[in-house]
């Protein structure tokens, strides 16, 4: 049974598998090598995933969800077609689509996967991604960082080289950079940095705003000042989709004409957008964002204790690295041409497939590749400080420094802060600020049973263990008695319970099967609904009854019943012709 590698992206996703010891992309059911990460409810409440959903988005933006990856790990709900969804559930539908594509292509069941996440995803975001995989019916064998996966794909083709590479990964919604050493078949991540809210969609948004403002100045019409909310949303969706196409065109052209016909009706007259933009103008719109990525590059270099001159190769990953300004800034910084011989849209999925092969033993690590990764952020606990004779809480004490090699276990010893203290609350945080309120709260637990005594008499050892999947376990021990308390950190906000995951898994599976069934009988239902307009009396009643029967069978997700009523409806349509 195959284990697949999945790149679950903000704007596009991909799936790969190992053919022998070489990774290969699995095309989706439409034949595409990547799948837009777009979720849509049709007017019939049919779930549509991928390119078809993206194509239909301008006409039904309120029934479409995009860029959901940015909401992973939060408790924010996504409204689609009047229905409320958790980000994990929408991501699960995308994963289910990729899973089914893999099963169709490979001709076998797929139940396990390695899924990638941005290196700078926090604990909650990683757990949410794992939950999405479980909802999709996948055992998530490993969660790995996207630039690490790309480095694996690169390393597989350059396994005999000893070198330092910098993986610059600018995707649709996130940016990551990793400094990686490759030596004797080992791929070792030395440091990672990134920004979870910087990517190609931000370039699209900047261009969308520019088009709207430019049209307002040249034509005197504010496209968002009139019409219904639905019409305004449709305009924005059309312009944003066009902005993405313009951005792509500007990668190969220095000037692009912008033509969006019949974008609105204003003062009883049709309105169209006609203008042009140069690459230089586009570069000015995105330059500040592009420069932000170099700040993260410097951070990763500093943490790896390497300089620009120590980097042998720069590998560009993610579709947004096709933007000429990005390539220019990176190449100017390192004084060399970036490597572009690996497909930036596919490298992460290919690397995930290799990691899956390592996990299953399909790739022999004694003869091939071994991966060493890092924890990209600092993990620690809250402590108090004595300031001016006062005990002041709210200070952050690091236990696992950022960019520590994983798996890792680190401990620190602390002491009671008050007389007769019998318990301690262990608060767990992620971040680099000295104050806990400026960092990300992860979890807490209480250790009780401390022997009463003077402050400072009793010692408590706090141990943090961070594994290769990014799961943190914290244990606190009273040194004098050996009494322990521990917890696998479960982030408070945005985390689904096991019961919620089970319910969501059943619902997603049912939704997908209903969608498949609907596609099989869609044409006969459409013919029946059209014929309703040309029938009357008893014939119309029979037709309405037949349509109702097949729709009820679809709701029950009963394949045998659907097929029975499809045959009856087909026979009736033949009679009525």
Automatic annotation (TrEMBL):
Entry's Gene Ontology molecular function annotations: ATP binding; ATP-dependent protein folding chaperone
Pfam families: HSP70 (PF00012)
Keywords attached to this entry: ATP-binding, Chaperone, Nucleotide-binding, Phosphoprotein, Stress response
Keyword Hydrolase on entry: no
InterPro entries cross-referenced by the UniProt entry: ATPase_NBD, Heat_shock_70_CS, HSP70_peptide-bd_sf, Hsp_70_fam
PROSITE patterns, A to Z: HSP70_1 (PS00297), HSP70_2 (PS00329), HSP70_3 (PS01036)
Signal peptide per UniProt: none
The keyword Nucleotide-binding belongs to this UniProt entry's keyword annotation: yes
Described function: Acts as a chaperone.
Family: Belongs to the heat shock protein 70 family.
Protein name: Chaperone protein DnaK
């Amino acid at each position: 049974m195959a284990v697949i590698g999945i790149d679950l992206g903000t704007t596009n996703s991909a799936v790969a598998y190992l053919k022998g010891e070489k990774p290969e992309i699995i095309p989706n059911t439409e034949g595409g090598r990547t799948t837009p990460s777009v979720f849509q409810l049709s007017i019939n409440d049919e779930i549509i995933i991928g390119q078809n959903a993206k194509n239909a988005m301008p006409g039904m933006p309120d029934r479409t969800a995009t860029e959901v990856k940015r909401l992973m790990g939060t408790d924010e709900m996504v409204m689609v077609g009047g229905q409320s969804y958790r980000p994990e559930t929408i991501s699960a539908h995308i994963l289910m689509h990729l899973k089914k594509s893999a099963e169709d292509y490979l001709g076998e069941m797929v139940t396990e996967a390695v899924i990638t996440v941005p290196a700078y995803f926090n604990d909650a975001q990683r757990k949410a991604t794992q939950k999405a995989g479980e909802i999709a019916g996948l055992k998530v064998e490993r969660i790995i960082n996207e630039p690490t996966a790309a480095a694996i794909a690169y390393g597989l083709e350059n396994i005999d080289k000893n070198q330092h590479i910098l993986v610059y990964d600018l995707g649709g919604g996130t940016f990551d950079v990793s400094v990686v050493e490759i030596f004797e078949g080992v791929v070792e991540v030395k440091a990672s940095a990134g920004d979870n809210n910087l990517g190609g969609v931000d370039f699209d948004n900047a261009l969308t705003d520019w088009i709207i403002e430019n049209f307002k100045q040249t034509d005197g019409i504010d496209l968002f000042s009139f019409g219904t909310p639905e019409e305004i949303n449709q305009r924005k969706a059309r312009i944003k989709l066009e902005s993405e196409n313009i951005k792509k065109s500007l990668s190969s052209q220095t000037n692009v004409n912008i033509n969006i016909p019949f974008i609105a009706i204003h003062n009883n007259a049709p309105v169209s957008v006609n203008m042009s933009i140069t690459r230089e103008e586009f570069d000015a719109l995105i330059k500040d964002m592009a420069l932000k990525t170099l700040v993260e590059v410097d951070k990763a270099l500093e943490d790896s204790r390497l300089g620009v001159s120590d980097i042998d190769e720069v590998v560009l990953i993610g579709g947004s690295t096709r933007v000429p300004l990005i390539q220019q800034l990176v190449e100017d910084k390192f004084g060399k041409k970036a490597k572009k011989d690996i497909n930036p849209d596919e490298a992460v999925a290919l690397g995930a497939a290799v990691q899956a092969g390592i996990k299953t033993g399909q790739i022999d690590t004694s003869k091939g590749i071994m991966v060493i990764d890092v924890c990209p952020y600092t993990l620690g606990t809250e402590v108090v400080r004595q300031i001016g004779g006062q005990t002041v809480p709210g200070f952050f004490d690091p236990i696992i420094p950022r960019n520590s090699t994983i798996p890792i276990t680190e401990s620190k010893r602390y002491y009671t802060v008050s007389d007769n203290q019998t318990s301690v609350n262990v608060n767990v945080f992620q971040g680099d600020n000295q104050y806990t309120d400026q960092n990300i709260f992860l979890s807490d637990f209480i250790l009780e049973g401390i022997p009463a005594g003077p402050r400072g008499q009793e010692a408590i050892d706090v141990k943090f263990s961070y594994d290769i999947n990014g799961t943190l376990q914290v244990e606190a021990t009273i040194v004098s008695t050996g009494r322990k308390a521990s917890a696998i950190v479960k982030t408070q906000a945005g985390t689904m319970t096991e019961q919620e995951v089970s319910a969501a898994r059943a619902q997603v599976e049912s939704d997908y099967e209903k969608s498949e069934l609907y596609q099989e009988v869609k044409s006969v239902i459409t013919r029946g609904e059209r014929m309703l307009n040309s029938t009357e009396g008893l014939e119309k009643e029979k037709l309405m009854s037949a349509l109702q029967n097949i729709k009820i069978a679809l709701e029950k997700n009963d394949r045998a019943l659907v097929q029975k009523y499809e045959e009856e409806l087909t026979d009736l349509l033949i009679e009525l012709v």
